[in-house]
Amino acid sequence: MKIVPVFYKYPFVYIFCFFAAGIFSYYFHPIWQIIEISAALSILSLLIYLNFKKQLQYLYFLFIGLTFFCIGALTLNRFYDQNFEPLEKSKSSNVILRIDEFQQKEQWSKGVAQVCKTAENGSLTPTRKKILFFAQTQNNIHVNDVLFVSTSLSPILNKNNPGDFDMKLYWEGKGVREMCFFQNDDFKYLDKLESSWFERFMNSLSSNFSKALENHLSGTELAIAKALVLGDKSLLDGETRNSFTATGAMHVLAVSGLHIGLILQLFLEFAKLFSKYISRKSAILTIVVILWIYALLTGFSPSVIRAVFMFSVLTVSQLFGKNYNAMNNLFFTAFILLLFQPMFLFDIGFQLSYLAMVGIFLFNQTVTNWFTFKNKIANYIWQGTAVGFA
Length: 390
Description:
Elements: H1 3-9, H2 11-28, H3 32-51, H4 58-83, E1 94-103, E2 109-120, E3 123-126, E4 130-136, E5 145-150, E6 154-155, H5 167-172, E7 176-183, E8 187-192, H6 197-216, H7 219-230, H8 238-246, H9 257-272, H10 280-297, H11 302-320, H12 326-340, H13 348-368, H14 376-389
Parallel strand pairs: 4-7
Antiparallel strand pairs: 1-2, 1-5, 2-3, 2-4, 5-8, 6-7
Helix pairs in contact: 1-2, 2-4, 2-12, 3-4, 6-7, 9-10, 9-11, 10-11, 11-12, 12-13, 13-14
């Protein structure tokens, strides 16, 4: 049967499709019946296959597919259990927050906080959820601060305007379902949690990079450089943001696969200069470590994690794999990422980055063959252009 060689050549393409379908189905219909029915069909197909192996070989692959469909649904169910609580149980007006992220702004500052405890009827109840908050305050709030806040938690909802940004889905992907507002008089400073030595080291390293940029640049140039190199967009003013948005180049300011790919290629070319002194394996492994350090420097954002993990697996598997299959390895990275963070499936950045890589693997060679130049430089430029077309 045709499905047999295709499955063995691209097993993770097949596995990913069913796994993603399980996540997708459970997101829109979060009921246990979906898991129970697919599990029953999976077991039934296995039992029938065991009795009619030769005649019904395709049932073996159906069993595998339905099994990973169940795993996908269970993965999203686990994510919900770990990050969310029923909204009707989270209407407390007093909460103890640990600040995880914070962006200071002139009017309303924004951040994400872990709700450590809720205060209701004179008792403190531990919780495991995160919230989005907006604070109008002149007092400095920092990451790892612990605050007692008097506020009202409300679900994050969409405005439901045609073509409007799906804020609810965006924040759900970050494990956040609720939001609150507070001002100066609404909170009290309780404590500051001590950062780990690793966090302090990475913050110090990031600070040194930032100071190096500040010593040589200023104004708009500094703001753009920090956004490009460190992923820090706090210095970008409205005019600069609007300029990049108007030209369709706002994505350039977000550290993502584009930057990681350029850094990887730059280091690979640099390593070639020292090919006499360092083996290719050692060079690539060193570069992969550097990429992960860079990911930490830029705040370990989801887009950077995706890009670094994807390039790490593709590069290392190409180096060590005897039967290297780029497409299969690409879908392997997607499967692993969704296994740990299933809401990535609904992230437009995740979708576009993987679609772009699939397009490159499928069409790059065909597009490259359209033209051939005798001049090496012209040929090199065309190869780069062909990647864009693919």
